[in-house]
Write a structure and sequence with these properties.
The chain is of the alpha/beta class. It folds into five domains: about 5-105; about 110-225, no CATH class; about 230-320 and about 495-565, P-loop containing nucleotide triphosphate hydrolases (Rossmann fold), CATH 3.40.50; about 350-420 and about 430-455, no CATH class; about 570-725, Rossmann fold (3-Layer(aba) Sandwich), CATH 3.40.50.300. Strands 1, 2, 3, 4, 5, 6, 7 and 8 form an eight-stranded mixed sheet that branches. It is globular, with a radius of gyration of 31 Å. The model is unreliable at about 60-65 and about 195-200 (pLDDT under 50).
């Protein structure tokens, strides 16, 4: 690759031209921002005024002819006007957000393109968002636009790109990487091949921060192919630590939302995160790419959402749990049970309230028996659920009309009236007794209604035992929870899953075969992006990439497999240590030879001297330097935190439930650090006693891979044999 670096002395004319264009665009951005902010303020004010007028009109309408046809038409017209105002508000807010980003860094790249039969070269500047003026002059192109793909994908010379109107042949004359800050040009590089290392190395050498770094400006060619893939049903990506897997899938989400913006909503994209902490970590990244966040949850959250759910192992329990193993064969047993299930085999329960049976299981059975038996079971159950809701409402209505309510209503205090009618009411004598009784009974039977809607009247635990021959004993393992969730899904068919068009799964190697089969089945209408690293499998029940592919192909998905073998995050010495841990040359890992400090291992004779040294490391942490002490599990993290004297300068993160990226040393288990990066990582006590099994090797590899610039491996007593890789 040939690189030409920009400098004021070496390329004075080019530098001046670039600076002049940057100044021109920046001034345009400022003027547009001022205009958009003013328009947004006016729209917000108009919206408030419109809502007030609409509320007034509705009150007048309800006092006179509230049920007239003309009134209903007027209300509908007003609602449409309000929807248009709200749409404009949202659009202006997005413009404000994009302009704020562009004013920080207007763009990061430029390509020179010559179209066939054209004499003049066209210049395209590329940024995190597009920018044009009112006359539709395009000054900056969105990094996800078709033309921008030339910057990421192709070499100079004759090439082409895909646009909505088809394939466009062009002659790519130049590719330039630019480093700009607001209206100042800092540097530029001209590259003759698809974007590679100059700007990337510069970014990687900078200190870490709470966000993933300048990810749109440093996309590499192999990552770009993944980001823009819209054909694969299942895109399976095996990428080593530091290869940009996380940033690639986030950019892929942003690209998909941009490419299919007419018919793909953020809530139709579901990102399964390895832990809650990782979810918090990336919350700010997608908005910085110009998009709203997709739905995010952990796998535990997902299976809890499938009908009624029993307590499931935490991540810590999952790490320690031994013994229970599941399989796809177990899931097939559940499928067979549901497929062959007859009404007279259903295990039913009464719906009760204060010891009184409101709806008996015999009534439920009788109603089910009258339905056409060829109807799918989940449809029969859904129909009966609705009928039970109607029956409960009929019971409540009948009860509210009984005579004893007059005395009970009269005995209510003013506070109780206020709770029932928070928006106010007329005097007690003028109030409809039946209306108050209905309100009271409705509140009293909220739990009964909830039990009906959650199918508590169906003994799912009993059906699980029938299907598998095993009794459920909470807390469940993740695989048991998966089996139970699958039973819920097959019998009840929650419709939520049909809305998901794209499913993104990070750390796929940590999912069991059972869990992957479950996901493939319930999201069978979605496109999958599965990302992981076999070397970072830190749970016993993980799955090989070969097996992942087989499972999805079994469920009739076409699987496209891609690899990311080049490690960008860590310095050369750290990357080389990771490569050695992974098996050396046979691992296929390519190291970016970025200079850095050697990996340091240090012996301590006892815990006391070791803890003193950790206290000193915490106290001497450079300002703006992100540092973490990583342990094998949560229990060890808690114990270590309590023993340190510098606890006020550190933060314990043991469960992923609360996370702050304040500039303190984080003490945390390695499985919560997945996806995160730090300037310095200390791996707690890499001794022979603590690190000896193949799983321990994966944990050490994963912990080491979180370090960008410094990796410190202290141990008490004898070192782990894995340190011989140094």
């Amino acid at each position: 690759m040939n690189n030409t670096r920009g400098s004021f002395m070496g390329n004075k004319k080019e530098w001046q031209a670039e600076q002049a264009y940057l100044t021109f665009v920046y001034d345009k951005l400022l003027a547009t921002q001022k205009q958009v902010v003013a328009e947004a303020e006016d729209t917000n004010e108009s919206s408030k005024q419109f809502v007030q007028e609409l509320s007034s009109d509705l009150r007048m309408s309800s006092d006179s002819v509230s049920d007239s046809f003309e009134s209903l038409i007027e209300v509908e017209q007003k609602n449409q006007e309000l929807a248009q105002i709200n749409y404009k508000r949202e659009w202006l807010e997005k413009q404000k957000h994009n302009l704020a980003q562009l004013l920080t860094t207007p763009y990061f790249a430029k390509i020179d393109v010559l179209y066939p039969d054209e004499a003049e070269i066209e210049k395209f500047y590329i940024g995190v968002a597009g920018f044009s003026d009112e006359e539709h002059h395009q000054y900056i192109y969105d990094w996800r636009s078709p033309i921008a793909n030339l910057y990421y994908e192709n070499n100079l010379g004759q090439t082409s790109y895909e646009a909505p109107m088809g394939n466009i042949p062009v002659d790519l004359k130049n590719r330039r990487q630019l480093k700009v800050e607001e209206n100042r040009l800092i540097d530029f590089f001209d590259t003759s091949t698809a974007i590679e290392d100059p700007m990337l190395l510069q970014v990687l050498n900078e200190e870490s921060n709470a966000k993933l770094q300048d990810i749109t400006s440093t996309i590499q060619r192999e990552q770009n192919e993944i980001i823009r893939d819209t054909q694969s049903e299942v895109l399976l990506i095996e990428g080593i630590a530091g290869s940009g897997k996380t940033s690639t899938i986030l950019q892929r989400i942003a690209y998909l939302l941009y490419r299919f913006r007419e018919n793909l909503l953020p809530e139709q994209v579901l990102l399964l995160s390895p832990n809650p902490m990782f979810s918090k970590y990336i919350e700010e990244v997608l908005p910085s790419l110009g998009e709203k966040n997709p739905r995010q949850m952990t796998y535990r959250d997902l299976i809890k959402n499938q009908g009624r759910m029993l307590p499931v192992d935490s991540l810590e329990d999952q790490l320690k749990r031994k013994g229970y193993t599941s399989s796809v064969a177990q899931m097939k047993k559940i499928e067979k049970h549901v497929k062959n299930l007859k009404v007279d085999e259903l295990i039913l329960r009464d719906i009760t309230h204060d010891g009184k049976v409101l709806i008996s299981k015999q009534w439920i059975f009788d109603e089910l028996s009258m339905l056409p038996q060829e109807t799918e079971m989940y449809r029969q159950l859904e129909f009966i659920r609705e009928k039970m809701t109607d029956r409960l409402q009929s019971y409540i209505t009948a009860e509210s009309r009984k005579d004893y309510w007059r005395d009970e209503v009269q005995s209510l205090s003013n506070e109780e009236y206020q709770q029932l009618f928070p928006k106010g009411m007329k005097g007690k004598e003028e109030v409809n007794i039946e209306k108050i009784a209905l309100r009271i009974l409705t509140r009293r039977h909220q739990k009964s209604r909830s039990r009906i809607n959650r199918y508590v009247w169906l003994d799912m635990e009993g059906h699980y035992e029938q299907a598998t021959g095993q009794k459920l004993q909470p807390p469940l393992t993740l695989d048991q929870g998966t089996e139970f969730a699958y039973l819920n899904y097959l019998m009840l068919r929650k419709r939520d899953e049909r809305r998901v068009k794209y499913m993104i799964i990070d750390e796929v190697q940590d999912y069991s075969e059972t869990q992957l089969y479950f996901l493939a089945q319930i999201f069978h209408q979605a496109h999958f992006t599965l990302v992981g690293d076999g070397f970072q499998s830190v749970f016993d029940q993980g799955t090989t990439f070969k097996k992942v592919k087989e499972i999805f192909e079994t469920v009739d998905f076409d699987v496209t497999f891609r690899e990311l073998k080049k490690s960008y995050r860590s310095s050369g010495p750290i990357s080389q240590f990771m490569k050695n841990l992974a098996g050396g040359e046979k691992s296929g890992i390519e190291v970016v030879n970025r200079p850095g400090k050697d990996v340091e291992a240090e012996k301590f004779v006892d815990e006391e001297s070791y803890l003193r040294h950790l206290d000193r490391l915490i106290a001497e942490r450079p300002t703006a330097y992100r540092q973490a002490i990583l342990t094998k599990d949560s229990e060890t993290a808690v114990s270590l935190f309590k023993k340190l004297n510098r606890a006020s300068d550190s933060r314990l993160v043991a469960d992923g439930g609360s996370m702050s990226f304040s500039m303190k040393t984080l003490i945390m288990p390695v499985y919560l650090a997945k996806g995160l990066e730090f300037d310095r990582v200390v791996v707690h006590d890499v001794s022979e006693e603590e690190y000896q099994t193949p799983l321990d090797l994966n944990i050490l590899y994963t912990a080491s891979s979180r370090a960008m610039h410094e990796l410190y491996l202290p141990y008490i007593g004898k070192p782990s044999l894995f340190l011989s890789s140094l």
